Amino acid sequence: MAHLMSYIFPALMAYAALSDLLTMKIPNWLTGGLAVVFPVIALLVGMDISALINHILAGIVLLAAGVAMFVPGWMGAGDAKLLAGIGLWFGWGTALIDFLLLTAVAGGGLTLVILVIRSIPLPTFALSWDWLQRLHNKKKGIPYGIALAGAGLLVYPTSGIGHALLSLAN
């Protein structure tokens, strides 16, 4: 059971990144799923109440930060909710700091790559690809969920909950 549970977070991150790349949307069921599954996982790994509160507070603070970035249009609503969900899973501590730093670096790199791509005309064979048209459109935002999910995937194995799940799975 723990072996299967250890794949939930990575699977949701992979889906979030792919969904944001292809549709520039992160579904509510995915971000809601992060919040709904977390307490089950926390119980499975034996998280105590103080650690649970730590994780919940991290999620709430990152939700507030995400909303603060959403309101002026710096971040999409799905990105804000994904940020909060990842914060819930990582809690306050080194994993969250690592995640935020990796997200900033990955997000900056992603933005630069997309801006370069947007400055180059698409090849004829790609003109019918809706997802690439959206990505190439200068009036669209940056699918920052890719950076969030990528950083989440990189940090997950060393996070408290990721490490506990992977230990139970072995």
Q: Main sheet?
A: none
N-end to C-end Cα span: 11 Å
> Portion of residues in helices?
over 70%
Low-confidence stretches: none
The number of distinct β-strands equals 0
Strand content: under 5%
Structural class: mainly alpha
Give the SSE order as H and E letters. HHHHHHHHH
Instruction: Give the overall shape, derived from the CA principal axes.
Output: elongated
**What value does the Rg take, in angstroms?**
17 Å
* Average pLDDT for all residues: 93
Number of helices: 9
Please describe what this structure looks like.
- The chain is an all-alpha fold and 170 residues long.
- It has helices at residues 2-5, 8-23, 28-44, 49-70, 77-90, 94-118, 130-136, 145-155, 160-169.
- Helix 3 packs parallel to helix 5 and helix 4 (49-70) runs antiparallel to helix 5.
- The chain starts with a helix and ends with a helix.
